[in-house]
Amino acid sequence: MKSLKIMFGRVSAWALPVAMLFAAPALRAQEKQPAKIKASSIKVTMIESDEIKLPAEFQVSLYEDLIQQLQKKGGFQHVYRDGDHNAADAADLVILTSTVRGFKEGSERVRQVTTVAGATSISVHCAFTNKDGKLLLERDIRGNVRFFGGNLRATYDFAKKTAQVAHENFSPNAGT
Amino acid sequence: MVLSFWRVLSGGLLVMMSPFVLVSQAQQPAAPTKVVQIMGLTGVKNKTSGSLAVEGGNLRFAHGAAKVDLAATSVQDVVTGNDSQRLIHGTLGTLTMFAPYESGRFLSLFRTKLDTLTIQYRDTDGGLHGAVFTMPVGQAEVIKKELIAQGAHTSVPTVEGADNAPSKSTSAKEQKP
To answer: For a surface tag, which of A41, A144, A161, B123 has the fewest beta carbons within 10 Å of its beta carbon?
Structure first.
Protein backbone atom coordinates (compact mmCIF):
# COMPACT_ATOMS: atom_id res chain seq x y z
CA MET A 1 0.00 0.00 0.00
CA LYS A 2 2.81 2.30 0.95
CA SER A 3 4.68 1.55 -2.26
CA LEU A 4 1.49 2.28 -4.24
CA LYS A 5 1.28 5.71 -2.61
CA ILE A 6 4.91 6.45 -3.43
CA MET A 7 4.36 5.37 -7.01
CA PHE A 8 1.24 7.53 -7.32
CA GLY A 9 3.20 10.48 -5.94
CA ARG A 10 5.98 9.96 -8.47
CA VAL A 11 3.57 9.68 -11.37
CA SER A 12 1.68 12.81 -10.38
CA ALA A 13 4.97 14.67 -9.92
CA TRP A 14 5.85 13.84 -13.53
CA ALA A 15 2.40 14.27 -15.00
CA LEU A 16 1.92 17.84 -13.81
CA PRO A 17 4.98 19.35 -15.56
CA VAL A 18 4.27 17.33 -18.72
CA ALA A 19 0.67 18.57 -18.82
CA MET A 20 1.87 22.15 -18.34
CA LEU A 21 4.42 21.69 -21.09
CA PHE A 22 1.68 20.78 -23.57
CA ALA A 23 -0.92 23.25 -22.31
CA ALA A 24 1.34 26.31 -22.15
CA PRO A 25 1.81 26.89 -25.91
CA ALA A 26 -1.92 26.51 -26.54
CA LEU A 27 -2.75 29.00 -23.80
CA ARG A 28 -0.08 31.40 -25.04
CA ALA A 29 -1.43 31.15 -28.60
CA GLN A 30 -4.89 32.04 -27.36
CA GLU A 31 -3.52 35.06 -25.52
CA LYS A 32 -1.45 36.27 -28.50
CA GLN A 33 -4.15 35.79 -31.16
CA PRO A 34 -4.46 39.23 -32.77
CA ALA A 35 -7.75 40.94 -33.53
CA LYS A 36 -8.86 40.13 -37.05
CA ILE A 37 -9.12 42.82 -39.69
CA LYS A 38 -12.45 43.18 -41.43
CA ALA A 39 -12.25 42.09 -45.05
CA SER A 40 -14.92 40.38 -47.10
CA SER A 41 -13.05 40.14 -50.38
CA ILE A 42 -9.49 39.95 -51.62
CA LYS A 43 -7.82 40.80 -54.92
CA VAL A 44 -4.72 38.83 -55.83
CA THR A 45 -2.26 40.61 -58.08
CA MET A 46 0.12 38.72 -60.38
CA ILE A 47 3.28 37.55 -58.65
CA GLU A 48 6.14 40.02 -59.13
CA SER A 49 9.70 38.80 -59.56
CA ASP A 50 11.76 41.75 -60.72
CA GLU A 51 14.91 40.91 -58.74
CA ILE A 52 14.74 37.13 -59.00
CA LYS A 53 14.55 35.37 -62.36
CA LEU A 54 11.60 33.06 -61.92
CA PRO A 55 10.50 30.60 -64.64
CA ALA A 56 7.09 31.52 -66.09
CA GLU A 57 5.49 28.24 -65.00
CA PHE A 58 6.42 28.95 -61.36
CA GLN A 59 5.04 32.49 -61.56
CA VAL A 60 1.72 31.30 -62.98
CA SER A 61 1.60 28.33 -60.63
CA LEU A 62 2.13 30.58 -57.58
CA TYR A 63 -0.69 32.85 -58.73
CA GLU A 64 -3.17 30.10 -59.56
CA ASP A 65 -2.44 28.07 -56.41
CA LEU A 66 -2.80 31.20 -54.32
CA ILE A 67 -6.24 31.93 -55.78
CA GLN A 68 -7.36 28.31 -55.35
CA GLN A 69 -6.21 28.14 -51.72
CA LEU A 70 -7.70 31.54 -50.83
CA GLN A 71 -11.02 30.40 -52.30
CA LYS A 72 -10.85 27.18 -50.27
CA LYS A 73 -9.42 28.30 -46.95
CA GLY A 74 -9.02 32.07 -46.92
CA GLY A 75 -12.48 32.74 -45.50
CA PHE A 76 -13.27 35.52 -47.98
CA GLN A 77 -16.61 35.89 -49.72
CA HIS A 78 -14.96 36.81 -53.03
CA VAL A 79 -11.49 36.26 -54.42
CA TYR A 80 -10.81 38.55 -57.36
CA ARG A 81 -8.14 38.10 -59.96
CA ASP A 82 -5.65 40.71 -61.13
CA GLY A 83 -7.45 43.19 -63.39
CA ASP A 84 -11.01 42.06 -62.57
CA HIS A 85 -13.30 45.09 -63.07
CA ASN A 86 -15.78 43.82 -60.46
CA ALA A 87 -13.23 44.35 -57.68
CA ALA A 88 -13.64 48.13 -57.99
CA ASP A 89 -17.09 48.02 -56.38
CA ALA A 90 -16.21 45.46 -53.68
CA ALA A 91 -16.56 46.58 -50.07
CA ASP A 92 -13.84 45.80 -47.50
CA LEU A 93 -11.43 44.81 -50.24
CA VAL A 94 -7.91 43.69 -49.40
CA ILE A 95 -5.24 43.64 -52.10
CA LEU A 96 -2.53 40.99 -51.88
CA THR A 97 0.75 41.86 -53.58
CA SER A 98 3.37 39.11 -53.66
CA THR A 99 7.01 39.67 -54.54
CA VAL A 100 9.47 36.82 -54.97
CA ARG A 101 12.54 37.39 -52.78
CA GLY A 102 14.29 34.04 -53.19
CA PHE A 103 14.09 31.01 -55.44
CA LYS A 104 16.11 27.82 -55.51
CA GLU A 105 15.07 25.28 -58.11
CA GLY A 106 15.87 21.77 -56.92
CA SER A 107 15.56 18.50 -58.77
CA GLU A 108 12.82 15.90 -58.46
CA ARG A 109 15.25 13.22 -59.64
CA VAL A 110 17.78 14.10 -56.93
CA ARG A 111 15.02 14.13 -54.29
CA GLN A 112 13.78 10.70 -55.33
CA VAL A 113 17.23 9.19 -55.47
CA THR A 114 18.79 10.71 -52.35
CA THR A 115 15.74 11.70 -50.23
CA VAL A 116 17.72 14.46 -48.47
CA ALA A 117 18.98 16.64 -51.34
CA GLY A 118 17.36 18.48 -54.26
CA ALA A 119 14.79 20.56 -52.37
CA THR A 120 13.01 23.41 -54.17
CA SER A 121 12.22 26.53 -52.17
CA ILE A 122 10.55 29.86 -52.91
CA SER A 123 10.52 32.83 -50.58
CA VAL A 124 7.81 35.39 -51.20
CA HIS A 125 7.09 38.71 -49.51
CA CYS A 126 3.33 39.14 -49.16
CA ALA A 127 1.81 42.56 -48.49
CA PHE A 128 -1.89 42.94 -47.70
CA THR A 129 -3.10 46.49 -48.32
CA ASN A 130 -6.49 48.18 -48.46
CA LYS A 131 -7.93 50.02 -51.47
CA ASP A 132 -6.09 53.21 -50.52
CA GLY A 133 -2.77 51.41 -50.41
CA LYS A 134 -2.48 51.41 -46.60
CA LEU A 135 -0.43 48.44 -45.44
CA LEU A 136 -2.51 46.14 -43.24
CA LEU A 137 -0.20 43.16 -42.89
CA GLU A 138 3.05 41.91 -44.38
CA ARG A 139 4.78 38.55 -44.09
CA ASP A 140 7.63 36.62 -45.67
CA ILE A 141 6.28 33.21 -46.58
CA ARG A 142 8.31 30.27 -47.82
CA GLY A 143 7.17 27.37 -49.97
CA ASN A 144 9.19 24.15 -50.08
CA VAL A 145 9.16 20.72 -51.60
CA ARG A 146 11.61 18.41 -49.84
CA PHE A 147 10.62 14.78 -50.43
CA PHE A 148 7.70 13.98 -52.71
CA GLY A 149 6.31 15.69 -55.79
CA GLY A 150 7.48 17.88 -58.62
CA ASN A 151 9.12 21.27 -58.24
CA LEU A 152 5.81 23.06 -58.75
CA ARG A 153 4.58 21.58 -55.46
CA ALA A 154 6.56 24.32 -53.69
CA THR A 155 4.03 26.82 -55.02
CA TYR A 156 1.20 24.78 -53.51
CA ASP A 157 2.99 24.78 -50.14
CA PHE A 158 3.41 28.56 -50.32
CA ALA A 159 -0.25 29.06 -51.27
CA LYS A 160 -1.49 26.91 -48.38
CA LYS A 161 0.59 28.88 -45.87
CA THR A 162 -0.53 32.23 -47.31
CA ALA A 163 -4.20 31.22 -47.19
CA GLN A 164 -3.68 30.22 -43.55
CA VAL A 165 -2.13 33.63 -42.76
CA ALA A 166 -5.06 35.35 -44.45
CA HIS A 167 -7.56 33.19 -42.57
CA GLU A 168 -5.91 34.01 -39.23
CA ASN A 169 -5.81 37.77 -39.81
CA PHE A 170 -8.87 38.68 -41.87
CA SER A 171 -12.54 37.99 -41.45
CA PRO A 172 -15.74 39.35 -43.02
CA ASN A 173 -17.29 39.47 -39.53
CA ALA A 174 -14.45 41.23 -37.71
CA GLY A 175 -15.38 44.29 -35.64
CA THR A 176 -12.80 46.75 -36.96
CA MET B 1 28.70 9.76 -118.48
CA VAL B 2 24.98 8.87 -118.74
CA LEU B 3 24.89 7.92 -115.04
CA SER B 4 26.32 11.24 -113.90
CA PHE B 5 23.81 13.07 -116.15
CA TRP B 6 20.91 11.29 -114.45
CA ARG B 7 22.40 12.02 -111.06
CA VAL B 8 22.70 15.73 -111.86
CA LEU B 9 19.18 15.79 -113.30
CA SER B 10 17.59 14.06 -110.31
CA GLY B 11 19.55 16.29 -107.92
CA GLY B 12 18.42 19.40 -109.79
CA LEU B 13 14.80 18.22 -109.74
CA LEU B 14 14.95 17.64 -105.99
CA VAL B 15 16.34 21.13 -105.41
CA MET B 16 13.67 22.66 -107.67
CA MET B 17 10.80 20.83 -105.94
CA SER B 18 11.94 21.33 -102.36
CA PRO B 19 10.25 24.76 -101.86
CA PHE B 20 6.90 23.27 -102.90
CA VAL B 21 7.32 20.45 -100.37
CA LEU B 22 7.81 23.00 -97.57
CA VAL B 23 4.77 25.00 -98.69
CA SER B 24 2.57 21.93 -98.79
CA GLN B 25 3.69 20.96 -95.28
CA ALA B 26 2.98 24.45 -93.97
CA GLN B 27 -0.53 24.43 -95.43
CA GLN B 28 -1.54 21.28 -93.60
CA PRO B 29 -3.77 22.03 -90.62
CA ALA B 30 -1.85 21.50 -87.38
CA ALA B 31 -2.80 18.22 -85.74
CA PRO B 32 -3.84 18.42 -82.08
CA THR B 33 -0.99 17.81 -79.67
CA LYS B 34 -1.39 15.46 -76.73
CA VAL B 35 -0.84 17.51 -73.59
CA VAL B 36 -1.42 17.47 -69.85
CA GLN B 37 -3.10 20.56 -68.44
CA ILE B 38 -1.23 21.03 -65.17
CA MET B 39 -3.37 23.89 -63.93
CA GLY B 40 -5.22 27.07 -64.73
CA LEU B 41 -7.86 26.40 -67.39
CA THR B 42 -11.29 27.41 -66.14
CA GLY B 43 -13.57 24.41 -65.72
CA VAL B 44 -10.80 21.84 -66.13
CA LYS B 45 -9.34 19.87 -63.23
CA ASN B 46 -5.63 20.07 -62.57
CA LYS B 47 -3.48 17.42 -64.28
CA THR B 48 -6.04 16.58 -66.97
CA SER B 49 -4.84 14.88 -70.15
CA GLY B 50 -6.21 16.10 -73.44
CA SER B 51 -5.27 17.57 -76.78
CA LEU B 52 -4.32 21.12 -77.64
CA ALA B 53 -4.74 22.79 -81.02
CA VAL B 54 -4.84 26.28 -82.47
CA GLU B 55 -7.78 26.58 -84.86
CA GLY B 56 -9.85 29.51 -86.10
CA GLY B 57 -8.16 32.05 -83.86
CA ASN B 58 -8.72 29.95 -80.74
CA LEU B 59 -6.57 27.78 -78.52
CA ARG B 60 -8.68 24.66 -78.06
CA PHE B 61 -8.12 22.17 -75.23
CA ALA B 62 -10.20 19.03 -75.66
CA HIS B 63 -10.52 16.29 -73.07
CA GLY B 64 -13.11 13.63 -73.81
CA ALA B 65 -16.28 15.27 -75.07
CA ALA B 66 -15.57 18.56 -73.32
CA LYS B 67 -13.80 21.40 -75.11
CA VAL B 68 -12.41 24.66 -73.76
CA ASP B 69 -11.74 27.50 -76.21
CA LEU B 70 -9.59 30.53 -75.55
CA ALA B 71 -9.38 33.39 -78.03
CA ALA B 72 -5.77 33.78 -79.12
CA THR B 73 -6.17 37.55 -78.85
CA SER B 74 -6.95 37.20 -75.12
CA VAL B 75 -3.57 35.55 -74.54
CA GLN B 76 -1.27 38.19 -73.04
CA ASP B 77 1.83 36.08 -72.72
CA VAL B 78 2.95 32.72 -74.01
CA VAL B 79 6.26 31.24 -72.88
CA THR B 80 7.84 27.84 -73.45
CA GLY B 81 10.12 25.92 -71.10
CA ASN B 82 11.31 22.43 -70.37
CA ASP B 83 10.83 19.86 -67.65
CA SER B 84 11.11 16.15 -67.12
CA GLN B 85 9.08 13.39 -65.53
CA ARG B 86 9.72 9.82 -64.39
CA LEU B 87 9.58 7.27 -67.17
CA ILE B 88 7.21 5.25 -64.96
CA HIS B 89 4.90 7.85 -63.44
CA GLY B 90 1.37 8.01 -62.06
CA THR B 91 0.03 5.36 -59.68
CA LEU B 92 2.44 2.72 -60.92
CA GLY B 93 5.30 5.15 -60.39
CA THR B 94 4.21 5.73 -56.80
CA LEU B 95 3.99 1.99 -56.19
CA THR B 96 7.55 1.52 -57.43
CA MET B 97 8.70 3.65 -54.47
CA PHE B 98 7.91 0.64 -52.28
CA ALA B 99 9.74 -1.83 -54.50
CA PRO B 100 12.40 -3.94 -52.72
CA TYR B 101 16.12 -3.26 -52.59
CA GLU B 102 15.65 0.47 -53.32
CA SER B 103 14.83 -0.35 -56.92
CA GLY B 104 12.30 2.51 -56.88
CA ARG B 105 15.17 4.95 -56.48
CA PHE B 106 16.99 3.30 -59.35
CA LEU B 107 13.91 3.67 -61.59
CA SER B 108 13.76 7.37 -60.67
CA LEU B 109 16.94 7.86 -62.65
CA PHE B 110 15.08 7.16 -65.89
CA ARG B 111 13.17 10.22 -66.97
CA THR B 112 11.56 11.60 -70.12
CA LYS B 113 11.99 15.19 -71.21
CA LEU B 114 8.97 17.42 -71.65
CA ASP B 115 8.16 20.83 -73.03
CA THR B 116 6.09 23.23 -70.96
CA LEU B 117 3.81 25.90 -72.37
CA THR B 118 2.74 28.67 -70.00
CA ILE B 119 0.07 31.15 -71.02
CA GLN B 120 -1.49 34.16 -69.35
CA TYR B 121 -4.91 35.28 -70.56
CA ARG B 122 -7.76 37.60 -69.56
CA ASP B 123 -11.39 36.59 -69.08
CA THR B 124 -14.38 38.73 -70.08
CA ASP B 125 -14.24 40.63 -66.74
CA GLY B 126 -10.59 41.46 -67.30
CA GLY B 127 -9.39 38.95 -64.69
CA LEU B 128 -5.94 37.52 -65.32
CA HIS B 129 -5.60 33.73 -65.56
CA GLY B 130 -2.57 31.54 -66.04
CA ALA B 131 -2.36 28.02 -67.43
CA VAL B 132 0.49 25.53 -67.62
CA PHE B 133 0.65 22.59 -70.05
CA THR B 134 3.23 19.86 -70.53
CA MET B 135 3.71 18.12 -73.88
CA PRO B 136 6.23 16.09 -75.88
CA VAL B 137 9.53 17.77 -76.68
CA GLY B 138 9.42 20.10 -79.69
CA GLN B 139 5.68 20.81 -79.61
CA ALA B 140 5.53 23.87 -77.35
CA GLU B 141 7.42 26.13 -79.72
CA VAL B 142 5.13 25.12 -82.61
CA ILE B 143 1.99 25.97 -80.64
CA LYS B 144 3.55 29.22 -79.45
CA LYS B 145 4.26 30.28 -83.05
CA GLU B 146 0.72 29.40 -84.13
CA LEU B 147 -0.73 31.37 -81.22
CA ILE B 148 1.36 34.43 -82.01
CA ALA B 149 0.34 34.18 -85.67
CA GLN B 150 -3.32 34.24 -84.54
CA GLY B 151 -2.89 37.36 -82.39
CA ALA B 152 -1.42 36.22 -79.06
CA HIS B 153 1.32 38.25 -77.38
CA THR B 154 4.59 37.12 -75.84
CA SER B 155 7.20 38.65 -73.57
CA VAL B 156 9.85 36.40 -75.14
CA PRO B 157 9.87 36.66 -78.95
CA THR B 158 10.36 33.44 -80.86
CA VAL B 159 13.74 32.80 -82.44
CA GLU B 160 13.70 32.57 -86.25
CA GLY B 161 14.17 29.01 -87.43
CA ALA B 162 13.17 27.61 -84.06
CA ASP B 163 10.90 25.11 -85.82
CA ASN B 164 13.88 23.08 -86.91
CA ALA B 165 15.96 23.66 -83.83
CA PRO B 166 15.55 21.39 -80.83
CA SER B 167 13.05 22.88 -78.40
CA LYS B 168 15.39 22.60 -75.43
CA SER B 169 17.80 25.18 -76.75
CA THR B 170 15.10 27.77 -77.46
CA SER B 171 13.42 27.26 -74.12
CA ALA B 172 16.72 27.47 -72.33
CA LYS B 173 17.22 30.85 -73.95
CA GLU B 174 13.83 31.96 -72.69
CA GLN B 175 14.09 30.70 -69.17
CA LYS B 176 17.70 31.44 -68.39
CA PRO B 177 18.83 34.51 -70.31
So the answer is: B123
